[in-house]
């Protein structure tokens, strides 16, 4: 694609980077490469830099652009809403706000068998904050939560308290209400001599042991009360490396939670909207959450909108009255019109069928690459949420340095396809920052998946040569 460098207002990359270095806070972003990459255009599964070089994007803005860059149907929905009702204060009502809430609530009723309501905000972390208020309110003010090692729920103060990485809290005071972090079953790095399912069961038993006696720390058997209000879960860990637990894990965990009256909050911010082949990733595991938090792909990255669904007992107006939380831009009409169109489109295009098929093709390609490159220690995935763990030649020891080289080479745009230059956009995750977390467009073609495998092969080969 040709980028018009003579267009009015065009500023070249060098000047933009100089201005960024002088005028922008570095605290609101993370630059994974030096210098940071500047992109000018996006279309489908590709982004284009100033030179017009295409970059196949296999992370799609951290799974926010599930339906591809420049998706015509969604772009048209946005343009239509701009001409009808682009803005309205959130104290007033408008049609798509009500329609979207109803659509999500009826979908949950069909799947979970529960009445519930939908509550909106503008970003994933903000929706997590709202859910914390909801949980505290429902538990008479209990402010302690369970969460997982390797879990990530955002970087606001409340979300940081339930995110396991200390580095997000380190400079911001003492977090007296920090969550208790429990082991998440990580099949590739499980203890020797255990099957994945046995490891999963052991993690559940380790959690349940906290309730054996009052001296195990969280349970008062005399009153039948737990000190902790809820367990925040990512059904598949996102920033933690797209770790997929054994399929029996959440059923075992939910039995313990139900036994002791602890709420389950499913964080679907990264895995929602058909990333795993289901609207909500928790659906794959056969359990019913009490609260579902969502964001990102709800609007395909075109407008900030997030929210949560909660069962009626937790969120009805008597127990959670008007003003319990509020944001000026929540339920904004541009966002709700897009969200409504996303859900309609997802069911009409049957992502529940197409995503697992594409995911199987992608996973098969990764397994073929694994045979060729000993440094790929593990591949796994569900739908189009996939992982490749980059290791040393032993196939197990984490190799962050090699993956860093791969990311740099991919963003240099010097790979080749049909005699032309092409780049590759990857995302890095994992407990050891050695995992490629794949979140391609749900509309990625089989041909583009094959291209991705070819480019990954080139990338690994170049990176290993140094």
Give the tags.
seven-stranded mixed sheet; 466 residues; alpha/beta; five-stranded mixed sheet; globular
What does the model show?
- The chain is α/β, with parallel strands linked by helices.
- Helices cover 35% and strands 17% of the residues.
- The protein is built from 13 helices and 18 strands.
- It has helices at 13-23, 60-63, 72-84, 95-112, 124-138, 157-161, 196-208, 249-259, 312-315, 333-348, 351-372, 400-412, 446-465; strands spanning 39-43, 46-49, 54-57, 116-121, 145-148, 180-182, 219-220, 225-226, 230-233, 263-267, 291-294, 306-311, 376-382, 385-390, 415-417, 420-425, 428-429, 435-438.
- The strands form four sheets. It has a seven-stranded mixed sheet, with helices on both faces. A five-stranded mixed sheet has the order 1-2-3-16-15, sandwiched between helices.
- Helix 7 runs parallel beside helix 8 and helix 12 (400-412) packs across helix 13.
- The longest helix is centred in the last third of the chain and has 22 residues, at 351-372.
- It is globular.
- The model has no long low-confidence stretch (mean pLDDT 96).
- This is Aminotransferase class III-fold pyridoxal phosphate-dependent enzyme.
- Its cofactor is pyridoxal 5'-phosphate.
């Amino acid at each position: 694609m040709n980028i018009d460098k003579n267009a009015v207002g065009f500023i070249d990359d060098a000047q933009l980077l100089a201005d960024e270095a002088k005028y922008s806070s570095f605290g609101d972003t993370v630059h994974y490469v030096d210098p940071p990459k500047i992109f000018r255009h996006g279309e489908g599964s590709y982004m284009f830099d100033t030179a017009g070089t295409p970059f196949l994007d296999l992370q799609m803005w951290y799974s926010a652009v599930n339906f591809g860059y420049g998706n015509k149907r969604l772009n048209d929905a946005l343009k239509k809403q701009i001409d009808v009702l682009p803005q309205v204060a959130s104290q007033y009502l408008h049609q798509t706000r009500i329609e979207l809430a109803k659509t999500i609530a009826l979908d949950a009723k069909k799947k979970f068998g529960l009445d519930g309501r939908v509550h909106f905000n503008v970003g994933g972390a903000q929706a997590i904050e709202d859910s914390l208020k909801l949980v505290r309110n429902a538990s008479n003010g209990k402010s302690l939560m369970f969460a997982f090692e390797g879990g990530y729920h955002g970087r606001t103060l409340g979300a940081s308290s339930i995110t396991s990485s200390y580095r997000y809290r380190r400079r911001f005071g003492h977090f007296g209400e920090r969550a208790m972090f429990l082991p998440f079953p990580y099949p590739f790095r499980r203890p020797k001599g255990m099957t994945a399912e046995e490891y999963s069961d052991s993690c559940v038993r380790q959690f349940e042991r906290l309730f054996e006696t009052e001296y195990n720390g969280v349970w008062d058997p005399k009153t039948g009360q737990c000190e902790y209000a809820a367990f925040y879960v990512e059904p598949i860990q996102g920033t933690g490396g797209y770790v997929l637990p054994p399929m029996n894990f959440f059923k075992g965990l939910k039995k313990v939670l139900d036994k002791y009256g602890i709420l389950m909050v499913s964080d679907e911010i990264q895995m929602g909207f058909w990333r795993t082949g289901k609207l909500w990733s928790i659906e794959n595991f056969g359990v019913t959450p009490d609260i579902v938090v969502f964001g990102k792909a709800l609007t395909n990255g075109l407008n900030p909108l997030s929210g949560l669904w909660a069962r009626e007992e937790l969120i009805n107006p008597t127990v959670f009255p008007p003003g319990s939380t509020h944001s000026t831009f929540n339920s904004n009409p541009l966002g709700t019109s897009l969200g409504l169109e996303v859900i309609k489109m997802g069911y009409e295009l049957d992502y529940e069928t197409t995503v697992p098929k594409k995911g199987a093709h992608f996973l098969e390609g990764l397994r073929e690459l694994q045979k060729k490159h000993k440094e790929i220690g593990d591949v796994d995935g569900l739908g189009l949420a996939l992982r490749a763990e980059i290791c040393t030649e032993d196939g197990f020891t984490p190799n962050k340095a090699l993956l860093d080289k791969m990311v740099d080479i991919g963003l240099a745009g010097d790979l080749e396809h049909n005699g032309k230059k092409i780049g590759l956009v990857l995302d890095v995750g994992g407990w050891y920052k050695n995992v490629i977390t794949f979140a391609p467009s749900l509309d990625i073609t089989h041909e583009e998946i094959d291209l991705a495998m070819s480019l990954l092969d080139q990338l690994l080969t170049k990176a290993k040569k140094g």
